């Protein structure tokens, strides 16, 4: 028996237990042994994380696909797991130690500290997994993985060693994003660009051989910079090769102010003649663009900052090399001065010598660490790198050939642009938590990369015996006694970037590098669902690693979803205070309401504007479904054994069979195309408008009438359509549909494992050919019998029933629209005249006259050859229906009201168009503000069109 009130919290808790106890989501179930696999790997959330709105959207879309394919008979593996999140996790534990006033990690030592991290992970690391379960994620939780599990760690080491052996991993001195607070390199994804109000300093650099005179422009060249403190590391000045102002100076030297170092003027297209002075200082060790300019012109790299962001001058051989006598005094004075304090003092010194031409206020973007909030420093340091350019070539080819495709397709352009200009990938991090790099160093710094320490020791001892650094006897002793080799060979202390291990996720989670049967069955995966912001960091790297080690792209489709913003279209951020917590929405409205709201808004073309009101609307939809099912139960609507909807006699029942089949086709095709919003919107319309608002209402006379064949058939059809709705809605709203299925459908087995609506007619020849090509002729794991079904709707097509019921619906809808437009009170009944009615209309009208009168608030329905005077005429399916309104409404007053409303709409249109025509507004306003104005204009235009239509109708009644 269905409870009177819909209570999401009670249902969700109960259904979660039912699914878990029944192993409903387990891949490789015995009943799916011969089924075609369908695999999705979850983008592993950070083990430190909690569910945010991006997670809610991403996992809702994945779950929709998994539940959809599971119902279509596929052997679904939705692979769950979490990422160890190097920096984030280490920070959490270090903060915990500090708050508890316990020894820090360095006092504790690496081994003890890592024990504490694992302890924290065991206690708190499952938070987000439990939250994903609350959302309804149908992962195979028995296969949950962690990027530092023993098996995954083994895969990481194997990949590192093999790539190093092939020359695709190497050590190099390059610029990295350096966090001076955390003292580690970080990835671009961990860098946030923050708008900062600063200055642009125009500095005079004296030309060699000329006596510097601040009043004589021929004695110096002006460079503009936002970072005067890095000028100490300048090794060149760049001008554009076509800039006539500087052509005669190219190749000459300038004298670096304060330092006295001679640096060369070079011609390089990086310099923009339209910006600043047209000349830029080149500091290869402190700017990524300057690094490339320096490489092109062979300029020295001089790093003048240490790891903590202080000037490093006094013992810096690179800095001191080539300086004139007396320059070391400056180095002494400024050594170990903080970079920002140094900036102020250096500018003061430059001003005192006349080297500052002018200072302009300048707003620009400055990189900050997303966790430390420290200004990120481009820092020259030795790090481990992957030759991403070589690995990217097959990954580019896979997308160009269609082996992997992006949805929407426009993201392929973004992918290509980045991959074709890819830089070496820095994979080392100066942390303790993570996969420690499998490299060991000998006494002379020589590196030995191996899968185990014993293997590295063996290689090292063999090498040093051969080089006669140690004797063969010493080598044998060291091999046998760890104490005797203490300090002879030491392991690299750095760990790998977390993106390195997550790049292996599609195959390491299946058991690779072992010869696990799951690798053969579930790799490659089918779909990857992710956000656009990690195309470069994760998608591209999975493509590179998958193709290199598995010789196949890791997924055939990459679905890129948009961002979830607040209701005004602004990006959510803690600083703005507009972050919406999905768990709060689940608590208030239920997980199904949140999921359906996200799915309905998940369009390819725009970001999602989310509000609690939007979720409430979808909770109300769930309540409507609940009440419709309860109404069916109260009227004894039960599906008889062997009921065949195609054999229904009543036009209304044949119509709902046709509409249900059509909705099934729309939802199926939309989900196959990953058009989640279209699929969800089709269900919203069908359930609310077709089933609840029309079918159930039109069926009430039969349900409440006398017993007989009509009542029996209608009860069965109400139950059949309800069951089909529950199936179609299940991927979107799993909790409520599973509950209603259990209570009302009274079937054996779970809805989660029920077959998708309507019988399949079998796979197409194209699908069979594709399946055979993918599986191979002798693959015993895949049977073509359960390939995705093609639905046959021919049995449900009934043009005659559609014409009759469609006429009733259109007639009532148009009458209601006119009543609303004309402000006719609900209590006022109006007459209806069917003008020049056809034979079909004269036959069908008597069957529906009572229903039409009740639903359209009519006093009478009659037939006539011509419309009465003062009647509003409606065109319904090619025939005229007239509403005599003379005396019912005040035409003059209503006309005045409509004119006033049209005037308001015109004002709104003009106001919005004025803003949108202002180029400055469009260029400078936030994206969401501009989009809001466009929406206002479109809404006002639509409102005006309706008002004009109403005014035109009103003229008929005058």
Automatic annotation (TrEMBL):
GO terms for cellular component: cytosol. Pfam families: Anticodon_1, tRNA-synt_1, Val_tRNA-synt_C. Its main location: cytoplasm. Gene3D superfamilies: HUPs, Isoleucyl-tRNA Synthetase, Domain 1, Valyl-tRNA synthetase, C-terminal domain, Valyl/Leucyl/Isoleucyl-tRNA synthetase, editing domain. InterPro entries: aa-tRNA-synth_I_CS, aa-tRNA-synth_Ia, Anticodon_Ia_Val, M/V/L/I-tRNA-synth_anticd-bd, Rossmann-like_a/b/a_fold, tRNA-bd_arm, tRNAsynth_Ia_anticodon-bd, Val-tRNA_synth_C_sf. Keywords: Aminoacyl-tRNA synthetase, ATP-binding, Coiled coil, Cytoplasm, Ligase, Nucleotide-binding, Protein biosynthesis. The keyword ATP-binding applies. GO terms for biological process: valyl-tRNA aminoacylation. It catalyses: tRNA(Val) + L-valine + ATP = L-valyl-tRNA(Val) + AMP + diphosphate. Residues 922-957 form a coiled coil. Residues 890-955 form the Valyl-tRNA synthetase tRNA-binding arm domain. Its EC number is 6.1.1.9. A motif ('KMSKS' region) lies at residues 571-575. Residues 653-828 form the Methionyl/Valyl/Leucyl/Isoleucyl-tRNA synthetase anticodon-binding domain. ATP binds at residue 574. GO terms for molecular function: aminoacyl-tRNA deacylase activity; ATP binding; valine-tRNA ligase activity. Residues 18-611 form the Aminoacyl-tRNA synthetase class Ia domain. Belongs to the class-I aminoacyl-tRNA synthetase family. ValS type 1 subfamily. The C-terminal coiled-coil domain is crucial for aminoacylation activity. ValRS has two distinct active sites: one for aminoacylation and one for editing. The misactivated threonine is translocated from the active site to the editing site. This is Valine--tRNA ligase. It comes from Bradyrhizobium cytisi.
